[in-house]
């Protein structure tokens, strides 16, 4: 395991950023596994800087009105709706 | 145990008699089907019913195909064994008791078991080629941009393509003919680069006379002995048919697995941010504010491997780590592309074993995610380089299927189909 192996606090912090609640067991398990995986990712240090000139062009289309999903269809999978809107939890 | 090939068995009929009239197709369950639930192998989308069809599904229907079901898969495409599916693992019809490979394991198994004539899967880092190899069927990962991703639930969108499975190269090519081509709903697509009146299926002639095959030595290192033996037997067979081979070196591929996982996880952490249980997806029925409710829905809705990748991707993109991981991974990606361009300037196609090992036993590899990632060493470089590749059954080792992978230049699918159809002739 490398010196800068990930700590349980870091796992909790990242989980909070990613909005994934974790159990204590999951924190333990991920802390161990992330140490191995991140140590392996460290070998990217050996990769030289490479010139990245992608031969790409932007794809544009005329800004014209076209059909979209109707409201009922778009709301069909929502657990809660109100007056034709999605209804989410309280923001604070 | 039941083979558990499908998550949802429901027949969707095509329209009239197109080129696929009378052909049955299994569709991987991360490809949207209007009115038929599309779960991505996840509890998060257990009850999600898309209000529209993916472009490839519209094209199947127009071609007259009959869709027979939504195929089992690793959750959100994250796995190489089909064991991360919330709906349970799929057994391998070609090697019972073994995994079918993943993540498109249900699609490959459907073709191998005769449950469907052909199937659609998706390939982000090998998810078509791995199960094709493990189940002894043919799978094609098209060039990035050949097939529309509209309606595919995104995992690593700079890497993934939808592609066909078939029992033969010609069957898979026929399905590719139907799904390939530009789509104004996916700006990364382009027109099929075929001459008028020709098709991918027409290319399945098995003519390899004068074909130049490059064999990257790095992709044989560390592979199972029986797999390597089967591989060389297949190459010798192609030589007998008029092809020649030479060894090539791709030094960059030594870093392909880590580059692939950093990029795929980073993209996953962003793409899967949409699953909050509000517009669609698992509803946690939790109290608390917006953030707490989301975190609870995602805790309950996602399995271990998905959480692992979202967290590692979030970590790799977070302040202070971005340059160390993500930027270096993009450098490695560009390096891999350069290496392939060079090798393909002196060979028509490159060849390797598709997977360095025969199919794992069910349950063998769940506990060590890193070991699992390393098994993708031969397939991920192709996605990093946006190139097409095909996996064709090459024979068996100890009664277990071995796949041979051919890699071609961008939009060189015809060449791969021609060469692939010579294998096992």
From TrEMBL, chain A:
Protein name, as recorded: Aspartyl/glutamyl-tRNA(Asn/Gln) amidotransferase subunit C
One BP annotation, GO: translation
Role of this protein: Allows the formation of correctly charged Asn-tRNA(Asn) or Gln-tRNA(Gln) through the transamidation of misacylated Asp-tRNA(Asn) or Glu-tRNA(Gln) in organisms which lack either or both of asparaginyl-tRNA or glutaminyl-tRNA synthetases. The reaction takes place in the presence of glutamine and ATP through an activated phospho-Asp-tRNA(Asn) or phospho-Glu-tRNA(Gln).
GO molecular function terms noted in the UniProt entry: ATP binding; glutaminyl-tRNA synthase (glutamine-hydrolyzing) activity
Domain of life of the organism encoding this protein: Archaea
Assembly behavior: Heterotrimer of A, B and C subunits.
Catalytic activity: L-aspartyl-tRNA(Asn) + L-glutamine + ATP + H2O = L-asparaginyl-tRNA(Asn) + L-glutamate + ADP + phosphate + 2 H(+); L-glutamyl-tRNA(Gln) + L-glutamine + ATP + H2O = L-glutaminyl-tRNA(Gln) + L-glutamate + ADP + phosphate + H(+)
Keyword annotations: ATP-binding, Ligase, Nucleotide-binding, Protein biosynthesis
A UniProt-annotated Pfam family: GatC
Family: Belongs to the GatC family.
Enzyme Commission code: 6.3.5.-
From TrEMBL, chain B:
EC number in record: 6.3.5.7
Membrane spanning stretches: none
Pfam families attached to this UniProt entry: Amidase (PF01425)
EC top class, as a word: ligase
Amidase domain residues: 14-416
InterPro entries for this protein: Amidase, Amidase_CS, Amidase_dom, AS_sf, GatA
Any GO CC annotation of this UniProt entry: glutamyl-tRNA(Gln) amidotransferase complex
UniProt protein name: Glutamyl-tRNA(Gln) amidotransferase subunit A
Active site residues according to the UniProt entry: 28 (charge relay system), 103 (charge relay system), 127 (acyl-ester intermediate)
UniProt catalytic activity: L-glutamyl-tRNA(Gln) + L-glutamine + ATP + H2O = L-glutaminyl-tRNA(Gln) + L-glutamate + ADP + phosphate + H(+)
Similarity comment text for this entry: Belongs to the amidase family. GatA subfamily.
């Amino acid at each position: 395991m490398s010196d800068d192996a990930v700590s349980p606090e870091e796992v909790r912090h990242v989980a909070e950023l990613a909005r994934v609640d974790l159990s204590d067991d999951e924190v333990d398990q991920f802390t161990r596994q992330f140490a191995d995986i991140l140590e392996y990712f460290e070998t990217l240090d050996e990769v030289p800087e490479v010139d990245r000139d992608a031969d790409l062009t932007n794809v544009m289309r005329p800004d014209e009105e076209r059909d979209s999903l109707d409201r009922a269809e778009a709301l069909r999978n929502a657990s809660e709706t109100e007056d034709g809107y999605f209804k989410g939890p309280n923001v604070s | 145990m039941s083979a558990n090939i499908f998550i949802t068995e429901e027949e969707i009929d095509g329209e009239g008699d197109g080129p696929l009239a009378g052909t049955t197709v299994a569709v991987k369950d991360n490809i949207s089907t209007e009115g038929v639930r599309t779960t991505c192998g996840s509890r998060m989308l257990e009850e999600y019913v898309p209000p529209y069809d993916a472009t490839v599904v519209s094209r199947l229907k127009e071609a007259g195909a009959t869709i027979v079901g939504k195929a089992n898969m690793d959750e959100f495409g994250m796995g190489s064994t089909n064991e991360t599916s919330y709906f349970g693992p799929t057994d391998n019809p070609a090697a019972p008791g073994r995994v079918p490979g993943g993540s498109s394991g249900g699609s490959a198994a459907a073709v191998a078991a005769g449950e469907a004539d052909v199937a659609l899967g998706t390939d982000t880092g090998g998810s078509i080629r791995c199960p094709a190899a493990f189940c002894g069927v043919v799978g094609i990962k098209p060039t990035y941009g050949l097939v529309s991703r509209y309606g595919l639930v995104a995992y690593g969108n700079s890497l993934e393509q939808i592609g066909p499975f078939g029992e033969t190269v010609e069957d898979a090519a026929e399905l590719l003919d139907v799904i390939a081509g530009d789509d104004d709903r996916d700006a990364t697509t382009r027109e099929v680069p075929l001459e008028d009146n020709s098709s991918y299926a027409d290319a399945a002639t098995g003519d390899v006379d004068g074909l130049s095959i490059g064999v990257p030595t790095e992709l044989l290192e560390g592979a199972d002995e029986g797999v390597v033996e089967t591989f060389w037997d297949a190459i010798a067979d192609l030589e007998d048919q008029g092809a020649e081979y030479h060894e090539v070196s791709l030094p960059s591929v030594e870093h392909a697995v880590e580059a692939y996982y950093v990029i795929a996880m980073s993209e996953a952490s962003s793409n899967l941010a949409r699953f909050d249980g509000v517009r669609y997806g698992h509803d946690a029925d939790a109290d608390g504010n917006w953030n707490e409710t989301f975190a609870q829905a995602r805790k309950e809705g996602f399995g271990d491997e998905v959480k692992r990748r979202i967290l590692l991707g979030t970590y790799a993109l977070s302040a202070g780590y971005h340059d160390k991981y993500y930027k270096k991974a993009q450098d490695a990606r560009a390096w891999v592309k350069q290496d392939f361009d060079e090798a393909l300037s002196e060979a028509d196609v490159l060849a390797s074993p598709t997977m360095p090992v025969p199919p794992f036993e069910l349950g063998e590899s769940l506990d060590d995610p890193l070991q699992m990632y390393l098994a993708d060493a031969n397939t991920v470089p192709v996605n990093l380089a946006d190139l097409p590749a095909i996996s064709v059954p090459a024979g068996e080792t100890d009664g277990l299927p071995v796949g041979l992978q051919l890699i071609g230049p961008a939009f060189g699918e015809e060449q791969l189909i021609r060469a692939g159809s010579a294998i096992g002739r």
